[in-house]
Amino acid sequence: MHNATKLRAALKKPGALKVVGAHDALSARLIERAGFDGVWASGFAISASLKCIPDASFITSSEQLEVERNIAEAVNIPVIADCDTGYGNALNVMRTVNDRERAGVAAICIEDNVYPKRCSFYAGVRRELIPIDEHCGKIKAAKAAQTVPDFMVIARTEALIAGWGQEEALKRAEAYAEAGADAVLIHSKSKTFDELKTLYRAWSRRVPLVVVPTIFDQTTAQEMEQAGAKIIIYANQPVRAAIRAMRETLDLIRNDTRPGAANDRIVTLPEVYDIVGVPQMEQDEKAFLPIGGEKITAIIPAAGFEKQLLPLIEDKPKCLLDIKGKTILERAVAALNEANIKEIAVIRGYKKEAIALPNIRYYDNDRYEDTGELFSIFCAEPEMKGRTIVLYGDIIFDTTILEKLLKSSADFALVIDLAWQDHVDRGGAPSHLNPDLVTLAD
Ligand code: SPV
Ligand code: MG
Known about the structure:
Blueprint: H1 3-12, E1 17-22, H2 25-33, E2 38-41, H3 43-51, H4 61-74, E3 79-82, H5 90-103, E4 107-111, H6 132-145, E5 152-157, H7 165-178, E6 183-186, H8 194-202, E7 209-211, H9 221-227, E8 229-234, H10 237-256, H11 269-276, H12 278-288, E9 296-302, E10 322-323, E11 326-327, H13 328-338, E12 343-348, E13 361-364, H14 373-379, E14 387-390, H15 399-407, H16 419-425
Helix pairs in contact: 2-4, 4-5, 5-6, 6-7
The structure holds sulfopyruvate (SPV) and magnesium ion.
């Protein structure tokens, strides 16, 4: 469904839509998650965040379009693109419309400022409006150019902002509706809503009204809705919130030097992961990546003590026995690393202080003397998420065995040394060792 169809459907419901100004995909996602009805791709906020420049037609159509596309891709709610003056004359407006349709936004808003426009609230700048007819021509061109039937064109008049009075504002609003605008925005910089309320009473109501309460910021949604507004745009509060939050956090870290000094005013990393969709990515990895590509954790129980191995293990656990210049544990870690397994947990017990290889997470089974392997393995229970490989701490193995094991798609896969029995038959197996019992089905 095109984004425009969503906006049309939302407008059919009773009550005013509450739409919030975003400056990028992230802020748009937050607006959606906060439960608002739509996103306003704000020229003011995008100029500030993308290039840190004034809102005065310095941002090009394509720069703004790119952000709008990012926003539209990040949310499922309607997106209204603030297209300033439409980036030129009526013909430029036509391209502006088609670009926005393709970018997946629901509507554009074009204002009757001369190009280059200036933000409605800059105090000491020149303000001129284009003639009514010219703006009507832009609206007609926009409506003629659209190919998505539900796409909407919001006409905005800056008559009140430019000080041209209520009569002119109303005249323009009516003319723009007559020219085919799907909604009209009469912008005001009054500190109260009264000015607009008076105008709304005189308004013919032939198309919905859009209101931007940036300056009359103490007006409730209910009041604006009752006066006749159908779309309320909170245009720039998120970018202003971001500036303050960033500044305060930066001051804190600059003074304290520990990044954690800001912990109680910043979100956690997992919160960021959640917002940007890491959980979905994890699911997709499981569903679509070949087996072996995902994160695997290896758990190596190495807690036990076997007195038969004395005096070899007098001062160290079995896994630290040296085999041709490398310990058994070093060999196991190297084999795992070669298979791209970097998450390794070792359970220590007997002579635990001797085991100190880097890049390993350690768990201790201090009851190793009166517990068995299973108890040791479960000392590392927090590690048992996703694919987990458990290997004894006293075995040396060929990496091809590991590779084969990783290719298995079974829920549980065991690697068994079938040569053991031959070994026993030939009298080669140490008599004090009992092999683990495994029964093989045919
Ligand atoms: C914008 O967000 O860019 C707007 C609304 O045009 S306002 O800045 O309040 O004029
Ligand atoms: Mg704007």
